[in-house]
TrEMBL record:
It is found in: Cell inner membrane; Cell membrane; Membrane. One of its GO terms (cellular component) is plasma membrane. Its EC number is 3.4.16.4. This is Peptidoglycan D,D-transpeptidase MrdA. One of its GO terms (molecular function) is serine-type D-Ala-D-Ala carboxypeptidase activity. It is a single-pass membrane protein. It comes from Vibrio chagasii. It comes from the Bacteria. Belongs to the transpeptidase family. MrdA subfamily.
Amino acid sequence: MRRRNKFRDHKLEARLFRSRAVFAFICIVLLAGLLVLNIYCLQVTQHEYYQTRSNSNRIKIIPVPPTRGLIYDRNGIILAENVPVFSLELVPEKIENISETIEKLRGIIDISQEQEERFKKNLKRARRFSSIPLLDNLNDEQVARFSVNRYKYPGVDVMATLKRHYPYADILTHSLGYVARLNQSDLNRLITEGKDHNYKATRNIGKIGIERYYEDVLHGKVGYQEVEVNSRGRVIRTLKYVPPVSGQDITLNIDVELQSYIHKLLGGRKGAAVVVDPHDNGVLAMVSSPSYDPNAFVGGISNHDYKALLTNRNRPLINRATLGTYSPGSTIKPFIAVAALKERSITPRTKVRSVGAWRVPNSSTRAFRDWLKWGHGNVDVTQSIEQSVNTFFYQIAYDMGIDSLSNWMMMFGFGESTGIDIFEETSANMPTRAWKRNRFNKPWYIGDTIPIGIGQGYWTATPIQIANATSILVNNGRKKPLQLLDSLSNQNDSTKNKLVESPPIQGVPSNYWELARYGMYLVNHGKNGTSRKVFRNALYKSAGKSGTSQVFGLAENEEYDADNTPEHLRDLALFTGFAPYEEPEIVVTVILENAGGGSFNSAPIVKKIFDQVLIK
């Protein structure tokens, strides 16, 4: 078979090869150009950007929490401190068999199943070179027992940290408050306030009381370490260290010895006591009873223990001094007397005949009774305070009317917060026509006004408000803010707390103030004073006013029988006073829930507090 000859066009093939070579060369040049351009962008144009990203992978910022400021009482006694606590921690990468190691540790230290499970849960989330706590709050014996066996447990060590501690336990809880674990609610608030950056690596935050109110002062400023890490996140070296700034120390007006004494006097009974220095309205003591130990919250209180506090019928979690709302009873009669004198509803010589009951003029409404069923006879303003004559103040309430009464009592601080430096305070209620309309959608009646004259009806107040009003009376209408804080201090200096007074009650003649105070003097030292027996042998002169607040109403002809009344329905006992009478050094207000008459129950406690402060 003949072979077919093939003819090749060498020129065409050469031309085709050259064109392909040129195209390939152009592609190579373009690609090389793109590569060079990209390198230029990386090395020159975007150098800083990628250098920063590279450093962020290599350099880490580790926040260093500040040391919380300490809290002292007025005499320099420490009330809140930072104490070292020890935890047993394991580094997983240094331990061959973690479960076996934990089992061996049980031979020298008690480790519960719950603690082991919590450790293993944390182990899953942590890096193997991290130190993971197995046990917290080791006592001295546990630390010593591990220390002598430490060589047997590579990768296991005892670590020390600082923990908030309150040496006076339940004595100061409602004033100091406490710190506890920072939760999501706290974090959300910090983010809103723009403060979250200062809480990196911080575990605890002030929850209530002084710890909460002065959180910004006590917390300090976070520091940081700039460290170089490898690809696994292990720290290789420290590049920079900015130390944290410790929180400022706080000195309170509180006298812890006086606070402890009053706490013991109340003895767990439901009630509250407030002691104020009328010169500057510094709070010397503020006791709410019963109380609880705040140290339980610092490390995290168990659900069982917290539920027990929540369900306790005596409500220890409530600060009765600032959140407890009670009818103020007859403790407010001196304040109403000042208002009535200024409004000319009465004069210093006005007398009202007390026959044991009072009725609204030209009305068939029920009688409003006096505590003395046969009456007190003809009494003036000082005698009506001395003997706590309800009839006299029913008449004042009727003559002044609710509008004037409410306005005046608001000037004495009722119906609004005192401004004391804790967040846990209520304004209670000073009733008005508008309040009743909004609350009950009903008009105000004259029958609503009359009980206001003796601190009953819709009127509620807190012990701190009554103490504040008493201080205003002592100071002839000057209004000084109630303060727990005395001063702030750091390593270099101390700053006294600067107070701004509210506008005073103006236009009241000084003799009107003196008349009200003299009526209170007669309560303690007059021949008919309701508390004369309590203060009979006192080594000083004082002034006071008792109050008895009903928990439930009585029918017109019904008699109150304390012995046959369930405890939770018994009257509240109140007393407020100041001493010495001529140059007052302290104002004291005490309330006891379900205790009966103020003269018989609260007055003796006030007398003992006076003695504690005044008799050296």
